[in-house]
Amino acid sequence: MQSIRKNAVIRNTAILLIHCPDKQGILAAVTEFLNENHGNIIHLDQHVDHEEVIFYMRVEWELEKFTIPREKIADYFQTLIAQKFAIQFSLHFSDKRPRMAVFVSTMSHCLFDILARYTAGDWETDIPLIISNHETLRPVAKSFGVDFQLIEKNSANKAEQELKEIEILKQYNIDFVVLARYMQVLSDKFVANYPNRIINIHHSFLPAFAGAKPYHAAHERGVKIIGATSHYVTTDLDAGPIITQDVVRISHMDNVDSLIRKGRDLEKIVLSEAIYKHLQRKVLVYNNRTVVFN
Amino acid sequence: MQSIRKNAVIRNTAILLIHCPDKQGILAAVTEFLNENHGNIIHLDQHVDHEEVIFYMRVEWELEKFTIPREKIADYFQTLIAQKFAIQFSLHFSDKRPRMAVFVSTMSHCLFDILARYTAGDWETDIPLIISNHETLRPVAKSFGVDFQLIEKNSANKAEQELKEIEILKQYNIDFVVLARYMQVLSDKFVANYPNRIINIHHSFLPAFAGAKPYHAAHERGVKIIGATSHYVTTDLDAGPIITQDVVRISHMDNVDSLIRKGRDLEKIVLSEAIYKHLQRKVLVYNNRTVVFN
Amino acid sequence: MQSIRKNAVIRNTAILLIHCPDKQGILAAVTEFLNENHGNIIHLDQHVDHEEVIFYMRVEWELEKFTIPREKIADYFQTLIAQKFAIQFSLHFSDKRPRMAVFVSTMSHCLFDILARYTAGDWETDIPLIISNHETLRPVAKSFGVDFQLIEKNSANKAEQELKEIEILKQYNIDFVVLARYMQVLSDKFVANYPNRIINIHHSFLPAFAGAKPYHAAHERGVKIIGATSHYVTTDLDAGPIITQDVVRISHMDNVDSLIRKGRDLEKIVLSEAIYKHLQRKVLVYNNRTVVFN
Amino acid sequence: MQSIRKNAVIRNTAILLIHCPDKQGILAAVTEFLNENHGNIIHLDQHVDHEEVIFYMRVEWELEKFTIPREKIADYFQTLIAQKFAIQFSLHFSDKRPRMAVFVSTMSHCLFDILARYTAGDWETDIPLIISNHETLRPVAKSFGVDFQLIEKNSANKAEQELKEIEILKQYNIDFVVLARYMQVLSDKFVANYPNRIINIHHSFLPAFAGAKPYHAAHERGVKIIGATSHYVTTDLDAGPIITQDVVRISHMDNVDSLIRKGRDLEKIVLSEAIYKHLQRKVLVYNNRTVVFN
User: Fold this and answer.
1) Is the pLDDT of residue A9 over 80?
2) Which of D3, D137, D269 sits opposite B139 (nearest CB)?
3) How confident is the model over D197-247, as pLDDT tens digits?
4) Helices B256-279 & D256-279, crossing angle to 10 degrees?
């Protein structure tokens, strides 16, 4: 289907994600810096956490008339602004499309949802690679023109197979990984390679029902609402920073099968929304929580 | 405000709540029994749990032309139908208004919501009594014309004070108890007196954040959704059968104070909905879960 | 992708959808009829509209030990039960998979969602045919192994092209049609061929913003919630019986583009839910409204 | 109940609400102005509507160390900043509690909700006055210690009675009016006295079901979701700028009575949320739409 794949429209903008201890004057200093150098701000969102006394900001501006060359922006910003306010920042350019790899097992609903959006040009990303521990979804990858690599894992070969995966991810220049109902726990070592760059979907409203079989547990407990949670993967299982969550109402008429059916819709929408926010560079992680800008 | 208190319209109906092992013919037998004796069915809702193989039913019929006298219905139903199918049932009459006591501490939002509905005649109940461990809300009780009893508790006198409470509840002929943000844990002994007749509101989407300070815990965990849960109280803290739940979306812009503010609206609506369902005899408890009929 | 297409598990059951003027004894008569003939009821849902005094029912039972042969059930039910109560009914068999055609224009999100579910075996249906007024989505059809027919329409040739479409639908033995963001209005004549068998998705919470460009209208009006509505198509534009609706919260930060982006997720989920309910024979139309059983 | 009424904690802050044609440098200019004069910004929220090319902003800062006296802030801001950017602004002080009047007819649910929050000290407002065209709710006003004025209206005396109302509102120094299910349409003349200062609750998700009896209309149309909308009153009936909306799912099992019952909960929560946002000076009206800051 790559014949009909559309690319999202590329804007010529830069994005700064910032956090630092809150102090008077940060906002004025940053906007001054951009204005003076003819950077037209098209989005600015900032937030102050008054409990932790942290200032968060996302600002996006047009590069067209910006007088600082793009390769020098980070350096100038660091010297002129960041060090003054102890700012930690990351700088992104909209025309740099992040490269994403999808890990799957046998369930197709999240993968289809991702590939459909990719094909429709909804996302500013490239998806060159799907990795799986099963052959099942290879035809899907093929149809959508994405490479598919089978990496089978068992308890004996896990460490070795993960090394192979990391190798492949490097070959494909992958920026971030999406676990689209991938039924394997990644080792701490693997996770350490992609800090805040592995997005998982867990099929419950975390922290309720972490771990295996959350729909069974939800049915057993008799809850009236089920949910799904996308989060960055950390070494702590199902405990990483939450990006998005959604829920749906259920009743005594639901059994485990209908929870699984209803949950699939939540899972794919929640995961895709998290990917979208990540691609927009609208997610800032601090203290195992996320700031998700609008 | 009792001068303007309205009573809900009283219907002359009987309600059967039934559960039993599922077998062919139960539904036909029950509806036949009512039809033969000229009981016009106005609501019938039934549900089969195919995993547990349990049949649940709520049926409400008009008594006007029903040929069995109301005081003999339970006996006839037991003899003619229930024993044949191993049915466990409870029989209710719409014109018998259950009597409710409200336990509060210092927060007023749930209490106001309950008393406002009571005054407007939204519920088929009487609320003769409010019990509290603080004086704070006595003026509210007075305004709405409800008796208020102060029963102060500390770790030393708890057992003794609970005996006093049970005594008072009996004096007032209380059928069921509502804990409207009552910040005390009731003893197992107290709970045993009102099986499935104490309704609590917990300020989280259980099973997440059971126990104390759920809004603080939710903020700390960085969830994107908060909730409230009403449930029958059992001897297991925050683990009783869930009646209703609701949630609201939050973001990084919320702090603990705003979670508490938003949560109040959830709490009062969820608790009042649970009370309404209980009063309608639409809640059936089985196996620590509820069937909540429509 | 048809190589990996799964079929939903087929149950050997019959389903009756019933409506009639409400009278005492209908429920007992129908369940008696099934019980006597050894039809084990696995789902029963009934509803009485007390304003219109109409009785609605969906009952599903196992055919395995049912003593009336499947080809005689309709006749027996008509003679023994239906005529007595002026019942109108439709009889369905779970092992008969309805055949569905999808009409599309150029937007792919609903089509992908439908084909993904079809491939995963989530639905008891066959989808042999996609019809479009544009070539755009032919590669999608091909990838999923579904025939694709281009029927271009303009104001001059519309009547003629619709005849061609009806012809093709007959060739493919199509039972019902899904308009998956098909940007053409069907003529009354076309619609008359498929009463309550054409499902449309409209991108607003009807009756608000019927007609063209609802997201623009929603933005213009400044609403804080947008929605999507799936309904059966009637000769009255966007006014047919509503099957499912859903909404999402928006804010002043949204522009028309972001409404369109958020709306896509609603549209595909709402449309697919309507298709699912239709396939389960859980939708009963009466008086331009639907009863959608659980 | 005024004996237990709490006052919300008063902060010593100023709030600017701003809108103007979007241009480079506005944000920097405003924040510079505050910083230079030692105004510690505690909340800043801004939004650019790129279609209309309008810049919106709400900024709140501490007055404690602010070097411009509060009575001169408007003048200085106008001269130094506003005229340069063609800014239209309103300036508010947190310690000035707006005075609110509530108009009611006979339904109590919104009024109780408002008075409960007022009593609990949830809102920074004073409510000295309730006006009604019926005696019904006088005892409620009395209980909560709020003056109650009966102004009966009919088609003959409406103009005259409205003059009386305006007179009373002036006597009580009322800043804004809340129509809490007040079943009378206000004249254009009345509305002109309180531009963007009359908040109404309409019991539908506008623009669907504007006008009378929306629940009946919703039931008739067979929608699967009902809603409530709070908006500023303009001379165009039910067409003013929307502040908040919310919805709840319904089904074929609902009749008009149950819609009314479920709708009451929506109405009171939606109306109270709109009042809260208004009191926080978080609502900015432009072009018949609202910007509602977080």
Assistant:
1) no
2) D3
3) 999 999 999 999 999 999 999 999 999 999 999 999 999 999 999 999 999
4) 160
Residues pairing with B99 in the sheet: B126
A112 or A26, higher pLDDT: A112
Same CATH fold assignment for domains C13-93 and C99-292: no
What ipTM was reported for this prediction?
0.96
pLDDT tens digits for range D14-67: 999 999 999 888 988 998 899 999 998 888 898 889 888 999 999 999 999 999
Residue range C72-96, pLDDT digits in tens: 999 999 999 999 999 999 999 999 9
Query: Class for domain B13-93, per CATH?
Result: alpha beta
Both tokens of D195, joined, read: 């531009």
Q: Does domain D99-292 have CATH number 2.60.40.1930?
A: no
Q: Which of B278, B99, B120, B147 is nearest to B201 (CA)?
A: B278
* Mutation site, B202, B223, B224, B287, interface A, largest A CB count within 10 A: B224
Q: How many CB pairs under 8 A join C and D?
A: 87
User: What is d(CA A135, CA A8) in angstroms, rounded to the nearest whole number?
Assistant: 30
A13 near B CB under 8 A? no
**Among partner residues B35, B42, B43, which is closest to C28 by beta-carbon distance?**
B35
Tell whether A53 lies on the interface with B, counting CB pairs under 8 A: no
Q: Where are the domains of chain D?
A: 13-93, 99-292
Concatenated DSSP letters for C215-253?
HHHHHHHT-SEEEEEEEE--SSTT-SPEEEEEEEE--TT
D248 contacts in chain C (CB < 8 Å): none
Nearest to C18 by CA among C77, C75, C79, C66: C77
What is residue D87's three-state secondary structure?
coil
Nearest by CB to residue D4, choosing from B116, B139, B253, is B139
Residues of A in contact with D44 (CB under 8 A): 27, 46
What's the whole-number mean pLDDT along residues D174-190?
97
- Shortest Cα distance, chain D CAs vs residue A113, angstroms: 26
| Overall pTM surpassing 0.95 (yes/no) | yes
Of all residues in chain D, the one with the smallest CA distance to C270 is D224
Best interface-test mutation with C: which of B38, B41, B45 has the largest number of C CBs within 10 A? B41
